[in-house]
Structure formats: C-alpha cells, structure tokens
C-alpha cells in the first residue's frame, strides 16, 4: 500500500505485525520530529507496524505553523487512519504530538475514525499562558482508552490541568509524567518512548483481558 498519499514513513517489525500505530506531528513540526522517530522505532521493536506521517498543511509547505482550516487536517487524519488500517490485522492506535494529537482526538471524539487506543503526547490543554481558554470541550465524547504522555514543565498545561482534562474522558486513561521536560518531551533521564508505549500496551491488554 502506498503511503505517499499521506507522506507517511513506516517502521516495520521483524515479524508479522501485532497491530498498527499511526502518529503525526505538532504545529510547526513534521514526520521527521525526533519524538516520532523514537516512538515509532519503539513500537516496531515491540512487534507493531508504526507509521509517522505529515498533516495536510505540512504536505503543502515544508515549514511554518498550521495554515488553512483545521477541518482539512482532520480529514487528513481520517485518511491516514483509513489507509493504515489496511496495512495489518490487529488493533489500531492513533495519536500524535501536541496539535496533531489534539486534532486526532477530535476526529475520534466525533466518531470519524475508529481506533482502539489514543496516544497523545503533550496534549495542549490550553494555549501558553491562557488557561482560561481550555481545549477540552470534545474530551467527553472520546470513548476509547487514552494515554497522555506529558512533560511536567509544559507551558500548554500543568500536570494538574492535564489530570482534570483526562478525567473528562469516560474511558480508561493513563498519564505518563516526564519530569523536567518541556513541550518537545526531550529528556536526558527518562525513556519517553518506552514509557509511552508500555502504557498504551497496558491499555490494549486490559481491553482483551
């Protein structure tokens, strides 16, 4: 199957995939972000097929923040999930970093794509310095287990604010705290990818137990 339609790159496991992971980037980023590289590599190491892909705004131009309508980016997420669903049997996990994770969660909350687990990295609970403008209105519509991997020094939301946001989801959630990191989740002391993947695997196993 051709991933060029979504500007996607696949990380393939050694054997038959146990499932598929579909991840995208934050505002201003791309599929080449170090975080996406690390997380997709970790999923492949655990036997999953992991795809990192560019959102539509990034396919239009190589740098800069999101442009145009968020609806277009969400349509691109629906397309990516649909395309990757055909790559392997098993569960499908979707998500992304910051803007990409938020848009994916909106797609899932609106019922536009079926996934087994959401994995959200540094979910932007609110714009930096503006807690009065929460980005949480759709979270009660999410009915799938969700992992939040969040930095303790993230200007887009404190751990306490994230916990309050996660509590709005009427499904199991896990919060992975990355102590000392900021919005890029870069850490010299913690295995961010390993912790995030382990939490998602635990939620998958709880579904099938």
UniProtKB/TrEMBL annotation:
Pfam families linked to this entry: Abhydrolase_11
Start and end residues of each KANL3/Tex30 alpha/beta hydrolase-like domain: 19-188
Source species, domain of life: Bacteria
InterPro entries: AB_hydrolase_fold, KANL3/Tex30_Abhydrolase, NSL3/Tex30
Family annotation (PANTHER family): TESTIS DEVELOPMENT PROTEIN PRTD, TESTIS-EXPRESSED PROTEIN 30
Name of the protein described by the UniProt record: KANL3/Tex30 alpha/beta hydrolase-like domain-containing protein
UniProt source species: Mycobacterium shinjukuense
Lineage: Bacteria, Bacillati, Actinomycetota, Actinomycetes, Mycobacteriales
């Amino acid at each position: 199957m051709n991933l060029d339609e979504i500007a996607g790159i696949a990380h393939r496991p050694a054997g038959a995939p146990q499932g598929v992971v579909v991840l995208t980037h934050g505002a201003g980023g791309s599929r080449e972000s170090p975080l996406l590289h690390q997380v997709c590599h970790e999923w492949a190491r655990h036997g999953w097929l992991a795809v990192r892909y560019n959102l539509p705004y990034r396919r239009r131009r190589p740098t800069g923040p999101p442009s145009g309508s968020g609806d277009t980016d969400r349509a691109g997420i629906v397309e990516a999930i649909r395309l990757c669903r055909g790559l392997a049997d098993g569960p499908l996990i979707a998500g992304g970093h910051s803007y990409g994770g938020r848009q994916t969660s909106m797609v899932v909350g609106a019922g536009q794509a079926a996934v087994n687990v959401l994995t959200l990295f540094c979910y932007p609970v609110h714009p930096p310095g503006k807690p009065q403008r929460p980005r949480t209105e759709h979270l009660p519509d999410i009915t799938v287990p969700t992992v939040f991997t969040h930095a303790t020094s993230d200007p887009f939301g404190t751990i306490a604010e994230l916990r309050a946001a996660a509590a709005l989801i009427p499904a199991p959630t896990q919060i992975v705290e990355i102590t000392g990191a900021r919005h890029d989740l870069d850490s010299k002391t913690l295995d961010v990818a390993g912790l995030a993947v382990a939490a998602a695997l635990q939620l998958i196993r709880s579904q099938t137990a």
